[in-house]
Amino acid sequence: MPTMTDATASGLCAFVDASPSPFHVCETVAAELTEAGFVELRETDGWPTAPGRYYLVRGGSLVAWSTEESGHGESPFRIVGGHTDSPNLRVKQHPDLRSAGWQLVGLEPYGGAWLNSWLDRDLGISGRISVRVGNTLQQKLIRVDRPILRVPQLAIHLSEERKGVQLDPQRHVNAIWGVGNSPTSFLGYLAGQAGVAEDAVLGWELMTHDLAPSAVVGLHDELVSAPRLDNQGTCYAGTRALLAAVEEPGEAIPVLALFDHEEVGSMSDRGAFSDLLNSVLERIVLARGGGREDFLRALAGSVCASGDMAHATHPNYPDRHEPAHRIEVNGGPVLKVNQNLRYATDAAGAGAFALACDQAGVPLQRYVHRADLPCGSTIGPITASRTGLSTVDVGAPQLAMHSARELMGAADVAYYADALAAFLTPVE
Ligand code: ZN
Question: For the residues 395-412, what does the mean pLDDT come to?
């Protein structure tokens, strides 16, 4: 069945494989937006007054919007939020190590990575480097899809009583990339790949990625096996939703806000704690000739859907889930509620998303975490408190969250995108 957003499981696989780092997520989304007539704006420039489709990139974060809505005066915003980063292993500042005749690259965890899932995988490297050109700096994206890194597991015969080993993030996640004792330079290798001199590389944010391609799996192709579904599942669905929303404009200004650094607390120049969203929303109003009063009035009528992946009920651990809130893959998007506000959902936000699902013909599931287990969080409570926007936390169900390889339902890809598209285009 063709959906309003054309979101598909294979489309999600291609999106994830194109996007090994937050910077590459922004590049992938920007390419899709550009094709649909979106124009990149810079924060250092004056912004055009004409209605149009625009986006901006700040590091690993991206915000996109369209002012071609059908309203007049100060239209409210409809915002879909998400995050571009995923837990992984990242390169240290002095990465070149040698041990027992092996050449190693010093790595450390980023965010709440399930360390066991990174073992025995063929890993590539991606991210960005800051390169000196004369007395100026250029940021360059970098990506190596060759399997040059590997974090090997201990042989079972060398573990105590053949039990699973406890992984130490300091000692056990360094990657092998060669043998011998001759000096090697990992950054020198990467500089060569980027076509620059090693001593011109002055800063870097470099991370590993699993090179096994994403795949549609299961007896009836009903599942998606991929890395980084948390939260590229939302980045993909949100992008499809925005592209659908601009084709059939509603009375609100549709906004897609994808933030870096959610997995490490969002407190950075471009994380959800930053001024990024507030500043973009205010500048949208100012560029159209509105003032501060108009901006505050627009905010008061706006709603944000914070999209992040949700926990499907695990068949091998059903006891870890709230028994009256079973979440099924391919059962539709998930509304997430937490009484301690780990999720921002309130009755008004829940109503807005439930209505959008109904308008899109998409089933809706409702999640609460077990009351005796600590609940994770999202950008939802952060953007809600930074902007004062009515907010709802939503997601698509998946298993194995924060593993190097995650699993979600193939049908949920279109369900999720269609629900977000309807949310972006509220109709009276
Ligand atoms: Zn997440």
Answer: 98
In a domain, 217, yes or no: no
pLDDT tens track for 327-357: 999 999 999 999 999 999 999 999 999 999 9
Sheet holding 215-217, edge to edge: 215-217, 223-226, 406-409, 397-399, 310-311
C-alpha–C-alpha distance, residues 250 and 230, integer Å? 29
If 0-12 CB within 10 Å is exposed, 13-18 middle and 19+ buried, where does residue 50 land?
Answer: exposed
Ligand 1 centroid, distance to 136 Cα (angstroms): 35
Please give the distance, rounded to the nearest whole angstrom, from the Cα atom of residue 84 to the centre of ligand 1.
9
259 & 192 share domain: no
Count of Cβ atoms closer than 10 Å to residue 48 Cβ = 13
290-293, long-range: CB within 8 Å, 24+ apart, which pairs? 290/74
Query: How far is residue 233's CA from residue 263's CA, in Å, rounded to a whole number?
Result: 15
pLDDT band at 1 (very low <50, low <70, confident <90, very high): very low
Cα 402 to middle of ligand 1, angstroms:
8
Same domain, 317 and 231: yes
Structure tokens at 170: 């300091």
Residues 6+ apart with CB under 8 A from 133: 200
Which pLDDT tens digit goes with each residue over 220-261? Answer: 999 999 999 999 999 999 999 999 999 988 889 999 999 999
Domain range for 156 is 88-210
Mean pLDDT score, 180-208? 95
| Percentage above 70 pLDDT, the chain | 99
Distance CA(353)–CA(17), nearest Å, equals 29
Among all chains, which residue has been given the structure tokens 């308008």? 359
By the 8 A CB rule, do 381 and 343 touch?
Answer: yes
Residue 175 and residue 173: Cα distance in Å, rounded? 6
- Same domain for 196 and 236? no
**Residues annotated in the binding site for Zn(2+), as ranges?**
83, 157, 402
Ion ligand 1 nearby residues (CB, 5 A): 230-231, 308
Q: Is the pLDDT of residue 422 over 60?
A: yes
Within a domain: residue 4?
A: no
